[in-house]
Amino acid sequence: MSIFDALMQGFGVALQPMNLLWALVGCALGTAIGVLPGIGPALTITLLLPVTVTMSPTAAFIIFAGVFYGAMYGGSTTSILINTPGESGSMITALEGNKMAKNGRGAAALATAAIGSFVAGTIGTALLTVAAPTISEIAFVFGPAEYFALAVLAFTSVSVVLGTSILRGLVSLFFGLALAVMGTDYQAGLPRLTFGVPELSDGIGITIVLVAMFAIGEILFVASRLSQDPQKVIEVNEPIAMSREDWQRSWKPWLRGAALGFPIGVMPAGGSEIPTLLSYTLERRLSKSPEEFGHGAIEGVAGPEAANNAAVAGVMVPLLTLGLPTSATAAVMLAAFQNYGLQPGPTLFTSNPELVWGVIASLYIGNLMLLVLNLPMARVWVKLLAIPKPHLYAGILIFSLVGVWGISQSWVELLALGVLGVIGYGFRCCSVPIAPALIGLILGPMAELQLRRALAIGQGDPSTLVSSPISAGLLIIAALLLLIPLLRFFQNRRSEAATSPAA
Amino acid sequence: MTATVKTVSPARRLSRWGLPAGVLILGAVLLHEATGLPLTQTYAGIGPGFFVLAIGIVLTALGLALGYQVLRGTIFEPEEAEGADITRPMSWKGFLTAAAGIFLPVALVGYAGFPVGGAVAYALVTRAYGSRQLLLDVAIGFVVTSITWFAFTKLGVQLGGFFPPGGF
Fold it and tell me: Do A227 and B85 lie within an 8 Å CB cutoff?
């Protein structure tokens, strides 16, 4: 079956009235949480998990994909109008977009962000459509050693790339791995790190960790350092549209942003921070009037917004083809697949084509819905910010409690939620990134399983891990990712010592 | 460098050691656990203890490295977050009120049911966020949690009884 036929079949699934409705629900919810502070796509999907258990996996993933894409659109709206990037990928948009809004060009900034997101999101989804089946073919040759190497690469790259310091990235990763080994060892049946608590014999639920680290940690952190400045939303009264000149200045950055965002999104730990930053730097360099940057240059909104959304499509490639999450949200989606007893990877395309292609097709539809939801209605979404903060955060806590209490009604899990929430608070106080912990928690069991399998096949000989060129190559890249910054650190110290011997 | 260190209160200087200490404690817990687990298995090469031991060793090393950073004067600055002003000192009152809202339901939700336990949590968090209308917040909280309870129970999520002490 050709990719085109498969995609058409996917549209057949995604265009069913109920699935269209779910896509709309997901997109609207995604935009809303993108606008609201304190709640992001990863947390939203986690909180949806108990609700979606009763749905078909296809419907559930159509909602999740809508939330994932929608959060990026919503995040750009608040970045532009109140200079608060809801998502890390919108940080750059806040830089230029807010300046544009202050200069009375808010409408153009919103328009180039929404249209650019649509253009790049659609390009990204088209590339995903072509790339995913191809990569899944390659993935068929992956054995345990390759999967282990892949997990190691994901671990190192996530820790190195995300956050401010590699050391703290690794702390987060290994914290997640420590949580991952909790529970009964599947091979020997021995309890590990359960401290004799029977509730921990199944390990700690991913939902609890996620809700605690994201929602509870955030509630505690913001409560302890509550900002006293009232938010100022910049009013945009004219219709959200662009002039001819704006279009001329925007279309090239959109395409360049998409070209940067997608491949970086595909890479392990590409995420959306790096492509947005790269796109911004590139646009400033290519611009005929670089002095405008920092004072509201439309290219500085168009490029990064496009890169951001193309990266989101890119993140779906390793998730669907290899079962490899490269962002916190993708990690949660992987957990959701596992909840349904589905293992993303090459076999998913043959075993559940209607699910995979239905979700991919719904990404095209969702992108179009989001353009319609955001272009004329950006002002409506901003009204959500009128919810008083005390009630917003209290509401987030109530939904968190539903998410955890709804799983098993056990007070032990509520206590775990609180304790992990305090740890999440500590992470925020020391700028320890949270995503590596999630990747460690979710990929940890896979890494251990594949390592044991590989060693069992190789009869305990560790060289079996590097016997194939793919696994050896992946492990070498992983090692370089860790070693290069380390070497640079020592080099800097040596030059520091050379210039200032007294210190 | 030394001048700035002297102006910092002893409590804040101590708090810098929180991250390395926490990581070291976690590492120690894993190393302790690993001693009770078999490291190898006859044919599979590695046993259940291997991963635990490896994670424990790395965490201990990371804890030591962080401790070295603190000694060299690194300060772990808090992260930017929406609605938070990280230049302000931490408010224990806000933190503890919010924490009470998170930990009270642990006991209360099972005993008094989700709507009542949730309403208490709701009121405490609104208070931590500066609201001063306690009764109104409890009332709003109760309405929110009751609607949530009914909606999610309808969707098939088990949230227990509405008010167990009353037999509902």
Answer: yes
* 3-state secondary structure at position B14: helix
Beta carbons of A455 and B130 less than 8 Å apart = no
Q: What residues contact residue A218 under an 8 Å CB cut-off, 6+ apart?
A: A38, A396, A424, A428, B81
pLDDT at A142: 87
Rounded to an integer, what distance in angstroms lies between the CA atom of residue A450 and that of residue A200?
23
Residues B76-122: tens digit of each pLDDT: 888 877 778 888 888 899 999 999 999 998 888 888 889 999 999 99
Compute the nearest-CA separation of B47 from chain A (Å).
8
Interface of B with A in 67-96 (CB under 8 A): 69, 76-79, 81-86, 88, 90-92, 94-95
pLDDT of B5 reads: 44
Question: Which residues in chain A land under pLDDT 70?
Answer: 1, 85-88, 162-163, 269-271, 496-503
- Give me the phi and psi of B162, to 5 degrees please: -70, -45
Q: Is the pLDDT of residue B7 over 70?
A: no
Backbone dihedral angles phi then psi of residue B40, each to the nearest 5 degrees: -125, 160
Residue type, A475: L
d(CA A142, CA A205): 28
- The pTM of this model reads 0.89
Per the CB < 8 A criterion, the answer to whether A272 and A88 are in contact is yes
What does the pLDDT read at residue A117? 93
Strand partners, B45: B41
- Asked whether the beta carbons of A394 and B111 are under 8 A apart, the reply is no
- What's the pLDDT at A501? 47
* Cα gap A29→A32, rounded to integer Å: 5
Record: contact B148-A417, CB cut-off 8 A: no
Residues 6+ apart with CB under 8 A from A29: A44, A63, A66, A67, A70
Asked if B122 lies within 8 A of A168 by C-beta distance, the reply is no
Which pLDDT score is estimated for B44?
61
Per the DSSP assignment, residues forming a β-bridge with B112 are none
**CB-facing half-sphere around the CA of A409: CA atoms within 13 A:** 13
Size of interface A-B (CB pairs under 8 A): 244
- Nearest by Cα to A348 from A337, A357, A356: A356
Q: With contacts defined as CB-CB under 8 Å, which chain B residues touch A223?
A: 91, 94-95, 97-98, 125, 128-129
How close B51 comes to chain A (CA, Å)?
7
CB contact under 8 A, B58 and A174: yes
ipTM: 0.91
User: CA-based Rg of chain A, rounded to a whole angstrom?
Assistant: 23
Q: Which residues of A touch B141 (CB under 8 A)?
A: 394, 398
Give the whole-angstrom CA distance, residue B27 versus residue B148. Answer: 40
**Nearest neighbour of A224 by CB, restricted to B62, B94, B107:** B94
CB contact under 8 A, A188 and B82: no
B20 touches chain A (CB under 8 A): no
Report CB contact under 8 Å: A226, B84. yes
